[in-house]
Each structure stands twice: as structure tokens, then as C-alpha cells.
Amino acid sequence: MSLADLITTLRNAGIPDVLYVTDGGLGGGECYGIEHSNQGWMIYYSERGRKTPLSLHPDETAACQAMLALVMRAAGKA
Length: 78
Hints:
With about 80 residues, the chain is α+β, with helices and mostly antiparallel strands. It has one domain (about 5-75). It has two helices and four strands. It has helices at about 5-10, 60-75; strands spanning about 20, 30-35, 40-45, 50-55. The chain has a four-stranded mixed β-sheet with strand order 1-2-3-4, with helices on one face. The two termini are about 20 Å apart.
């Protein structure tokens, strides 16, 4: 799964954009995020202008699958 696939899947599932951010930013409030870094792909929680790392993945596919599961659970769809 690519980042583009993740975004499409979340939108098709009706997940509100405010629950996640996919550009490595902080989002509009409390939300989950994903970003690529030198260490790999990081999943984080954004809150009060801070990123709290939740998990680190070696590749995009693993990170996107983990992010999908996390956001779907948070939205009550898993």
C-alpha cells in the first residue's frame, strides 16, 4: 500500500480528514500522522503542536497499513 492508496482508502471509507494528516504536518488539532524520515516511516499522534511517535516502520507499505488500522479504529470503523 502506498501513501496515495492510504489516502484513497480513508476517503472512500468516509473517514474525516481532521482525524489524520499525511504530509508530516501537525494537522488542525488532535490527529494521527505519517511521515517519512531518515530512520524510516513514522506514525505519530499530533496534539497541542507536538508529535508523539507511536511506531516506526522500515517501508511505506508497512507504515500505511499500520496507519490505516489505527485511523479506522479511532473512527470506530474497525
